Protein: LruC domain-containing protein
Amino acid sequence: MKNNITSKTAGLAVLFAGMLLLSSCDTVSTSNDDPTGAFTVPKGFNFQTTTNVTLNLRASDIAAGSTVIRVYDGHPFMGGNIIRETPLTAGQSRTLNLSVGAHAQENLWVLSTLPSGLMSAHKVELSGSTAQVNVVTKRDESESDSGMLRGTFDDPGNHGFVTTGETAWAGLHGTGYTITNDFELGNTNFYENLCWVFAGGQVNGPSPITGQRAFQTQNPTENSFPNSVTTPWIEFNGTGTITFNWTQSGNPTSRRAILGLYYSDVHGNADTANPLYIQAYSANQSGVVMNATVDIPAHLTGVRRLVWNFLEVGGNNRGSLDDIVISGTLATTGAPACAPTGGSANQTEFVNHYPAANVFGTLAFEDNWPGFGDYDMNDLVLGYNIREITNANDEVIRIEMTHQIRAIGGVLRTGFGYQFPFEASAVASVNGQRLNTSLVSNDANGTEAGQDSAVVILWDNSTENMPTFSNVVPGRFTEYDVIESTITFNNPVPKSEVGNAPYNPFIFVHGIRNGEPFGGRGHEVHLKGMPPTSLADENIFGDASDASDPENGLYYQSKDGLNWAIHIPVPFVYPRSQTAITDAYTNFKAWAENGGTAFPDWYVDVEGNLNEEKVYRRPQN
Structure:
């Protein structure tokens, strides 16, 4: 009984401590107290964690036709993510203006994909913030070239393929319109980044048919075990051939293997009722290589995938597949989506990702402006992934957005939106808004009424599905609130007129502060240096800790040049409740005091950058 009483007493103490924490956050300060330890940043420094990069692309050396250019934030076949996508025709030039994380600007790559499937990767060599990139060579479709996929092959094994430190070229390549795979890259990750799909096997060296590598199945003991190879999306025209070699190895037991080759429907589902090739391999044929040639039937047209499927019956054996050559045209958007297109030459829409494909950037706000509060940058923490869909002229057709409300560390309510540089009349519609208060008034197209430029409010109450103080206290977690939105234009808008994401993001603050109604639609908080919208209450400028000077274009900064919001181009491990960002991140203060020249990667989640006891991480269980 005594132990139970002690346990309950301890539990009440913890609960009481938590109530004290929440009640202290509920009292919002408007004083000039600076919780950061009073440091000053250089004039003009806006806490920007991205840098602007200009890529001047030219296709003066490619053969007739077009190529699709994709810019990556790392090696395209070694984990890099797509940033930009645009077409180029022979003899054409195009300039891309990118906003990339300061940590990633030295690791940009450009990947060119021709209609034949040839891929050519180029490391971007910056001179200052500019690079010149000639995307392919005239030798593109008939012979190897050191300008193809270049990378260091660091396998120290005695494989006879390529020695450590040498460069290698590889890809989906061939003469004319063919797709090939000889598996000589030696790693499924490389081919998966080329949109091949593997199940139940690996690209290995023990049992090559030719060269040093082949796809090899696992050791299945029943025919339901999946072992397959699936091609990227390919455009077929009902002519040509498919050639490949395959074999089986294993102990001579009573077993056999069956290999089937199938084509998919337009959704990628294999038509197993109509195989292009099916062949049984008996036990006494172990090690015999089957050289297969399949005529592409006249009805096989359009964009499809091919699937080789191994079925094993009895025993313990492995199948191998090698030397694939397919008549067709590559028709995929490329990794990571690997979606079908009408063929590279016919692709009409291109996806431009911010900050990169499948990567979420972070927007973090303090809601106490114009007072300083605790400078923990977690009163509202958002993850964002933005996709600008462009046409062949690099004009924006629509903007697709995914936002995650990740943390709400303040007691006040917030709405969120973007201010754009183009006029509201350019917008046809906005889908996915969540507006349930009376604070926001929209025109028929979904843009906010009464604005001088296009303003889109995505939601007006961040706490609609998440309570206050979500995901700022260690050990506690609330599922993210996800909002999907799309902005569609009446007519394509030049990329230069749209600007770079995340544009001009802002919150507006409303609710109850110190027992009194507070804020409203006009109480906006923006990134430092970004202008307010036409509906912002400019009477707040200069109050409490704010030292904005609208006449000189200075907004949302303190007398020491500090900020109330920050943009991070990666998922950000933000500070715990009531922990200043200067305490949570070791190098933040030095970065800011030096105007961003020191520790430009201060926000990256690596040892030495942050204090684990002062940041919030999602619980693992």
Notes: Residues 2-26 form the longest helix (25 residues). The chain is about 5% helix and 35% strand. Residues 21 and 577 are 9 Å apart (CA to CA). Helices lie at 2-26, 188-192, 495-498, 581-584, 588-593.
